[in-house]
Amino acid sequence: MAETTAVIAPTGADPDVLDTIQQRVLWLATRIIDAANHDRDTGDGVKVGGHQASSASLVTVMTALYFAYLDAPDKVSVKPHASPVFHAIQYLLGNLDRAYLPTLRAFGGLQSYPSRTKDPDPVDFSTGSVGLGAAAPLFAAATRRYVDAHFGARPSSRFVALIGDAELDEGNIWEAVSDPATDGLGDVMWIVDVNRQSLDRVVPGIRIAQWEQQFTGAGWHVVEAKYGGRLQAAFARPGGGPLRAWIDQMPNEHYQSLFGRPAPSVRQRFLEGAPEEVRQFCAGIADDELAGLVTDLAGHDFRSLLAAFGECDQVKDRPSVLFAYTVKGWGLPIAGNPRNHSALLTTDQVDQMRERLGLTPATEWDRLDPMTPAGQWAAARREHLARAPRANAPAVAVRSPPRRRSAGSSSACPGTRPSRHFWSPRRPTSPPPPTWPASSTARASSARPRAARGARMPR
Fold first, then answer.
1. 188 has which bridge partners?
2. Would the N or C end of the chain have less CB density within 10 A of its end CB?
3. In terms of CATH, what superfamily is 8-40+49-226+297-383?
């Protein structure tokens, strides 16, 4: 298993510009869910739902993909609960009309989970069923390999799947991983959102290690993007080795408890049971700086993510899986809360977030200003990701079925053979075959009942 270092990938993307974009993506994804629950009249006041925390954990990863990594032919499967992030990105790229943003889970609006047939923006894979979003791109890549081999190669495509860590509990995922048909697919990259939280528990670290071993045993290329640039720089300083060892051995339950605390409380909780070398290393770091340092994960660091994507691209003889460590609820007041799976921000928290980002109720749904570096970069990425329109397949001519005769009619449909049997909605199904005698003698004498017996044979 390889671990990436924070070296910027050669994409031309400015991390500061990407950060501006991801802040708008985070806002739009959060507000899409908030509008569905607080702005729309549902008639009965029942909660519409949505997953603000699960969406937030993938904001950085998806911003890096769509605004710095993907090419037009690439196909992406999006984690079901991150659909608001996908719609926010498609809106910023100009592929979704503004009128759809407040329509999450409304009839005819944005779907709860990405849907190829029902969503108005371009979805590559429908991912409503847990586990389907991982397997579909894998077998799509296998199909693409077959088509290229038999009908000539086309411009290359990469197949990317965004998967929740708890989604790896689905058995069909491991059936796909172990299927010989998926061997050698170097154009596949799975990105596991390791936010260490499922619906009702913290995913233990030993489970993540088991998954990595299973992928390695299946012949996959395994990459881990765990620590962000600030932590990696701290590890490189004198005394940084014990700090890394302490975080590495810290149970996920302990690490998750660092989020949502004030800075002095983070220091106290982080150093509980820590060796003296770690205490000495942290002694000279201010509380606010330490709180940000020890929670600096690669899943929210563009340099680390783009370097990991590039490393996966270098491996051409097998699929790659990237374990990207993230924070469930990143950037939101509910970050890391063990009960944040379906939690919703209050209207006051949404108002505070809007104000912090410099938005107003009149501008909150706006796209990025085209005169700013972020707006110009989004426009350039829109052109880069644009796909040629696909021509519709020609309509298939279908012959009209012959007209049915009504019961009792003596006329027959043209070209049909007259029959004395007529269809009726109340006509019973054919009766079961008769029960023949059990003995061989009886079977010999009664194998074919004769008409002379007077019994009418069932038809």
1. 159
2. C
3. Thiamin diphosphate (ThDP)-binding fold, Pyr/PP domains (3.40.50.970)
